[in-house]
Amino acid sequence: xxxxxxxxxxxxxxxxxxxxEVKFGGDARLGMNYDGSRVAPAQSKTWxxxxxxxxxxxxxxxxxxxxxxxxxxLRSDEVAGTAVNGARVFVRAGGLTVAGGNIxxxxxxxxxxxxxxxxxxxxxxSGMVTNVTGRYFDWDAYSSRGNGAEGLEVIYTMGDFTGxxxxxxxxxxxxxxxxxxxxxxxxxxxxSGWTVALGLADGDAVNDSSDKIVLTxxxxxxxxxxxxxxxxxxxxxxxxxxxxxxxxxxxxxxxxSGYVASESGHGAAAAVxxxxxxxxxxxxxxxxxxxxxxxxxxxxxAKKARADLGVSFRF
Length: 315
What we know:
The chain is mainly beta and about 325 residues long. It has 1 helix and 18 strands. It has one domain (about 5-315): Porin. A 16-stranded antiparallel beta barrel has the order 2-3-4-6-7-8-9-10-11-12-13-14-15-16-17-18. One of its GO terms (cellular component) is membrane. One of its GO terms (molecular function) is porin activity.
């Protein structure tokens, strides 16, 4: 993301602070959205899509080279108005980062998890192997509007390897009642233009779908991008297995992308068919300067069509 540096202050203090800076950056989009599962006249099937995200990143580097920093996000859209989220605060030294608060989350940050998605908005995100019918986004992730998971995480990068461990618990924020804990981790390795990642997540509930084993593989063959993902979501009667394949092709400023995903093994606990297949197709045209025209169509788990089209840009 291209950052716009609005304030840089160099400090030389005996207390040990060497340099500090604050950066603003973000992205925006405007277009139209269609959802065939909406029922008229109570809900319009077509509506305006508008969203603006502004990231405020502040950091300072001590004399010993250790960086201390934080991020706060402002987000505004056509549905929920404008909100300021909870902060993520981190300490970084070399390839090691320790962070707390509104953490990124290991599964959320895992390479390849979002690869099978299309369109301006991601539409129903049905291609993600970590999303299954009736149970979407049930893992720790950075929240753009609230406090998020409120946890701790450690990220370590050495050469072509990256490891990420995250932990959240209601104990960390002093919430009463039953304790809810989630421990997640992934390891990823890059080689010859390919990335392979394995992720694990463990929640509290016996049949919780937030218990996950996730594998992703992605890379390029010439102008073609290819990817594969597989996941076991939940356990016991709530276990759902899902896999997806995705691909893309670049032709100058135009990129075509698509995916096919299938899930099975809902068991007796879910009143849904034993298997679901979704697929999507998207396209983008690079206008330069971080701006693109983006659109997509998707067949969701509910066997309904979704589509969007608009412009997005980074600043």
